[in-house]
Amino acid sequence: MGFMMSLIKNKLTMVLLIIVAFSFAACDGGKGDYNPADEKVVGETIAELTLPPHVPAPIDPHRAATKQIVNMEVLEHEGEMMDGVTYTYWTFGGSVPGQFIRIREGDEVEFHLKNHPDNKFAHNIDLHAVTGPGGGAASSFTAPGHETVFSFKALNPGLYVYHCATAPVGMHIANGMYGLILVEPKGGLPKVDKEYYVMQGDFYTAGRYGEAGHQPFDMDKALEENPDYVVFNGSVGAIAGDKALTAKVGETVRLYVGNGGPNLVSSFHVIGEIFDEVSVEGGDMINKNVQTTLIPAGGAAMVTFKVEVPGSLHLVDHSIFRAFNKGALGSLVVTGDEDQVIYSGQLEDKVYMAEGGRSLTLPSAKGSNEKLAGSKAERIKMGENVYKNLCQACHQPDAKGMKGVFPPLAKSDYFADDHNKAISAIVHGLSGKITVNGEIYNSAMPAQALSDEEVANVVTYLLNNFGNKGGEVSPDQVKKVRASGSAGNGGH
Ligand SMILES: [Cu+2]
Predict the structure, then answer these.
(1) pLDDT at residue 353 in the model
(2) 282: helix, coil or strand?
(3) Measuring CA to CA, which residue among 280, 278, 281, 272 is closest to residue 331?
(4) Is the torsion defined by CA of 463, 469, 473, 477 positive or negative?
């Protein structure tokens, strides 16, 4: 009998628990019974759209759901993929990625897609934030010289990709037709100090990376998913050098990061930072303390981090050849005071004695069996080997360097009139601000462990290649420079 009673009691508890669980589920995780689909819109405004890397101001957490009028114009125009390389971009609003749209859940968007009369192709738009056929594509097919209008209600908060979905879809996306729309949750996102808009894309050109001139789209490479360029914000260096993103020590930065593809998945990473928070795939799930976050093609993520020390942080796709050889490299320059507890900087660089006592000093000679060049032609030939084994990893096979990172050795005015400056960079290393062909570099080149003979060879090779003025350097000259100077900036 007692047993039966306790069974009934347990059953009662079960039923009660189920009722409680159900009423919690109906509450939708603490949002009360808010349903954006039912929220009435109050008034209408023209939505502010911004060009990358900027985003519109955060939405006032108290503003009611509103009718937002989005006016977006498609423009097909020529732009710079990198110095000396042009490409015909197809754009939403004139930029790659397209203009950033910022609304809140419950807003009703009246979308006006305008196709400029000078354009050659029809376009449409598929916004991943839309609940409806084709994400709007079915209602927005727009011929040049036309404007179409459709509307949608934003039902789900999050960061969403939009893109053109006109056939051939891959080609429209490959030409730059993608961007981001942020749907803020009711009540807004947590406040931060700086917000930026960064979007990766892969590009397929007839010429290889860096090949000068106007480069048409290459369908075969696109099919093989073998891009020549993988870039942030539409071109090499779009957020580097004097266009780098900026922040001050102590500030919290949020990056709205998208991936337009069309093909590649991004392993998004910021060198020298840890993401305090990532909204995984742009949705509600927050992951903490993340080094690298995957951003699928046609996907996005919000990453947030506080910058604690000054310096240059580098945004990369950590599929790392893309960063250093195809353009997926950007910078966030942080200014402010050092904090040597968080990051000390280099404390020491001293000679390391390997076990057994062999001291490792930079060689001035490779010993008596080192092969010496017998003629200038031979010196150049031997120098070419040194260049290919050592220098081209940074200065690039064409010696043109990498904008803002590695200075060019091709037609370099830095050592044109003083070969000792090139020798010194190699034997002592070089760091600090230098100007090469009008561009400022502020980086560091480590001293290279080469013999006097090898340095003479590689400098002579440089002088007689890559559009430099010619000449020859002897091992004796290298020996003198090695004996005289110290590491640092050869310019002072
Ligand atoms: Cu299109």
Answers:
(1) 58
(2) helix
(3) 272
(4) negative
Q: Give distance in angstroms: CA of 256 to centre of ligand 1.
A: 23
Q: What is the mean pLDDT of the chain?
A: 89
Neighbour-count burial of 398, counting CB atoms closer than 10 A to its CB (0-12 exposed, 13-18 middle, 19+ buried)? middle
pLDDT in tens, 332-385: 999 998 888 888 887 777 666 555 444 344 556 666 678 899 999 999 999 999
pLDDT digits (tens, 9 = 90+) for 283-325: 999 999 999 999 999 999 999 999 999 999 999 999 999 999 9
What is the CA(422)–ligand 1 centre distance, in A?
Answer: 49
Between CA 11 and CA 295 the distance in angstroms is: 47
pTM for this predicted structure: 0.69
Q: Six-digit token pair at 264? A: 């590649």
Task: Find the 169 Cα to ligand 1 centroid distance in Å.
Answer: 7
Nearest to 298 by CA among 313, 282, 314: 282
User: Is-cis flag, bond preceding 262, omega within 30?
Assistant: yes
Cα angle 70-108-58, degrees, rounded to a multiple of 5: 70
Residue 25 has pLDDT above 70, yes or no: no
- Give dist(CA 339, CA 425) in Å, integer: 30
How far does the centroid of ligand 1 lie from the alpha carbon of residue 123, in Å?
4
**Identity of the residue numbered 412:** S
Amino acid identity, position 168: P
What is the Cα–Cα distance from 255 to 250, expressed in whole angstroms? Answer: 16
Centre of ligand 1 to C-alpha 138, Å, is 13
Residue appearing with tokens 């803002």: 404
| CA-based R_g, the chain, Å | 29
For 274-291, what is each residue's pLDDT tens digit?
999 999 999 999 999 999
Local structure of 425: helix, strand or coil: helix
For residue 395, how far is its CA from the centre of ligand 1 (angstroms)? 37
CA of 92 to the centre of ligand 1 (A): 9
Q: Exposure string (b/e) for 428-454, b if CB count within 10 Å is 16 or more?
A: bbbbeebebeeeebeeebeebebbbbb
Length of the chain: 492
183 Cα: distance to centroid of ligand 1 (angstroms): 23
Distance 149 CA to ligand 1 centre (A): 16
Structure token digits, residue 245 = 């993103």
C-alpha 316/C-alpha 240 separation (Å) is 11
